[in-house]
Amino acid sequence: MRYYAAVAPVLLPLIEDRPLVLRRYPDGITKEGGAFYQQKAPATTPRGVRVEKVRTADGVEPRIVGGDLATLLYTVQIGAIEVNPWHSRVGSLLYADYTVLDLDPGPSAIFAQVVEAARWVHDEMQELGLTGSVKTSGSRGMHVYLRLPARTSFKTSRMVADIIAHRVAAGHPEETTLVRPLNQRPPNAVYLDVGQNDRGKSVAAPFSLRAREPGPVSTPLAWEELTDTLDPTKFTIDNVLRDAKRRAELWNDGLRRAIRLERLTRARVAGQATGAHRTRSAA
Predict the structure, then answer these.
(1) Are residues 120 and 80 in contact, defined by beta-carbon separation less than 8 angstroms?
(2) pTM score
(3) 95-105 and 190-193 strand pairing
(4) What's the pLDDT tens digit per position in 123-148?
(5) Which residue of 29, 139, 245, 254 has the smallest Cβ count within 10 Å?
(6) Phi, psi (rounded to 5 degrees) for 249
(7) Tell me, what DSSP letter sits at residue 202?
(8) What residues contact 24, with CB distance under 8 A and at least 6 apart?
């Protein structure tokens, strides 16, 4: 509670107007099977907590919506340690504000491999003239975000992530994978997950705590910090607040401008043409 109250000035603008996916730990993080997801706002939600009617695949449902301190602290009060916002906002829920690439290491992969994969993602972004922001996931992975133009569909959002992920995987097929089934992925590869770009999906917000010891925080980084010695475990509830304002500025600077989708379209067409040429040559 004290952490979220202190980090609220930089966190709240990032989750403003966004429905929140609650993962509640009413008995703490150590009880086996004690956590559960909650999408709908509880019937007992008190006044002062923002609740909006949101249309979902199951109909219109009441959802808790982020952006103010009372609402944030209420979610903590009911055991939601992590902050997981939608990629869209009330008033424009059919459109994604950003694309997310979730870099998820296999069980045998080390964090240095995740950092290397993030650098490859950044290389492809630069090649395509794209900008974005990067953060630790607060667990073993990393997240890369790219801001989208207004009224971008979730289908297009996923396409953006897909183009970048395929370019990385084509250049580094041994170190990265696009295989979705967990039991079919190479255990020592980094999974380039583009599946978080569907409507209603969520990942941990910047400055979100994660539900494990010693209280790791999903922390924005400068691209220059992506070195082999980067240690994600050093970003915790005990120290992130000291540098939160500067790291929030890093995050916001990377997402200040929307990417130009026509650059991705040209890259996709070029990639398809190259693939067709290779197919004809092989034949």
Answers:
(1) no
(2) 0.93
(3) antiparallel
(4) 999 999 999 999 999 999 999 999 99
(5) 245
(6) -65, -40
(7) B
(8) 35, 36, 37, 38, 78, 79, 80
